[in-house]
Amino acid sequence: MDLEISGRSAAEISDSLRALVERRMLRPGDALPSVRSLADSLGVNRNTVVAAYRQLTQAGVVVTLGRGGTRVADRAVVAQEGFAADTVLRDVGTGNPDPTRIPDLSRALAGVARRPVLYGEPVIDPDLERWARSWMGDAPAADFSLTITSGAADAVERLLASALTRDDAVALEDPCFLTSIHTVRVGGYRAVAIPMDDQGMTVAGLRVALADGVRAVICTPRAQNPTGASVSARRAAELRAVLAEHPYVLVIEDDHFSMLSREPFHTIIPAGHRRWALVRSVSKFLGPDMCLAVTASDDETADRLAMRLTPGTTWVSHLLQRLTLALASDPAVLAEIDRAGAHYAARNAAFAERLSALGLPAVAGDGLNLWVALPVPARAVTERLMRRGWLARSGDDFALDDAGAARRLRLTTHDLTDTEADQLADDIAAAVRAVGGRVLPAGVG
User: Fold this and answer.
1) What is the pLDDT of residues 139-193, one digit of tens each?
2) How far, CA to CA in Å, does 17 sit from each of 46, 189, 308?
3) CA of 269: how far to CAs of 12, 141, 225, in Å?
4) What pLDDT is attached to residue 414?
5) CA–CA distance, 59 with 52 (Å, rounded to integer)
6) CB proximity list for 106: less than 8 A, separation 6 or greater
7) Given this model, what pLDDT does residue 83 score?
8) Bridge-partner residues for 254, per DSSP?
9) pLDDT of residue 75
10) The pairing of beta strand 62-64 with beta strand 70-72
11) In this predicted structure, what is the pLDDT of residue 441?
12) 147 has which bridge partners?
């Protein structure tokens, strides 16, 4: 590599390489010289180059890939949920809950505006804390600490930041929730993929990730996004047995679908685990704008999380906390949430049946979306669907290493009418046929 790298100290070498990146003489993905070769060419000790690379890694300029060497970090933007709100096409890739299934907040708003909350007061509303402790009663330890954050993504980001440093390895499900990919990338951590099946993350994949030195594991125990998989009781026990040998690895469970889920909750966190957190947000059943999540964790993890909250937003608005409590403790709202969960399950199952009848076997998991297998590349199908007025999402948006995701669609169809659902299913089958896939003729099956 013919680069003008200079310097005698770690700081000078780091500055020289950073300048090359800023001038685009080094681009994302480009490999840096090996420690040995750069040390020899500059006439410095190898430890000096190691220190320079460490500074660049901590700054997020480069990433270390083990045997893959050190490369310039890819700062490409990760695709986000919500997809394309301004499109003229019918968006069936949003990942959003149905707004008509979100409880009316106005009925509860009038009753939550009490006295002002001032600095120095408890950060958790006492009434909300009592409710939250009951809600988190199935946490892996009976004696847990409670933290309130501005949503699940906020909790996960702060949990990782409180326990890890840049370039630490984090195990993620593969395919994975887009926000988790984004959080790990922006944090400068190294994502290690754990393959998924219909029972959740695989035991073999977890073992490989732990052997690779991951310092944190993020798991979705049910309604995994995008696959809809939920961890079975047997799989949870197998994963706990593996994790029990690594008590200081931070295990984060993001139970995002919680009250809406049709599946039981099975924790993968072993009894007595030293570093763990169970996160539940209210965004799926009270609306994405209700940015509040409850985290149950061990005491040390809670203390670290509280320290990460202190420099910024010390507490989540007590108005939001009171509104959450008013809604989540109202029997009428709880009944509405239960009906919403049943609605999502029924609509997803019905659309899976439509596709299966057209020769595209599909199974509805838990959650807001469908993870549909195709006999052809999904990108080719999404392009055809655009011509028919639909904006769908290809599965490779969610993949880390999973090549099979390129032949998947993630669809959000629960808010379609029966007529629209019939049309979309027919159009998917037609698009598959148009790019060379084999399906049964429409109406057969």
Assistant:
1) 999 999 999 999 999 999 999 999 998 778 999 999 999 999 989 888 888 899 9
2) 16, 20, 31
3) 45, 9, 20
4) 97
5) 11
6) none
7) 56
8) 279
9) 66
10) antiparallel
11) 58
12) 295
Tokens of 231: 């961890």
Low-confidence winner among 22-36, 369-383, 409-423 (lowest mean pLDDT) = 22-36
Nearest-CA neighbor of 125 among 322, 351, 411, 278?
322
- For the entire predicted model, the pTM comes to 0.85
Question: Domains plus CATH for the chain?
Answer: 10-72 (1.10.10.10), 90-95+333-434 (3.90.1150.10), 115-328 (3.40.640.10)
Burial of 443 (0-12, 13-18, 19+ CB in 10 A): exposed
Residues with Cβ within 8 Å of residue 266, at least 6 apart in sequence: 221, 222, 230, 231, 232, 233, 235, 236
Beta bridge partners of 189: none
Per the DSSP assignment, residues forming a β-bridge with 218 are: 252
Residue 114 has pLDDT above 70, yes or no: yes
Tokens of 329: 């403790």
Tell me the average pLDDT of the chain: 91
Q: Quote the pLDDT of residue 84.
A: 63
Amino acid making up residue 302? A
Per-residue pLDDT averaged across 83-96, rounded? 82
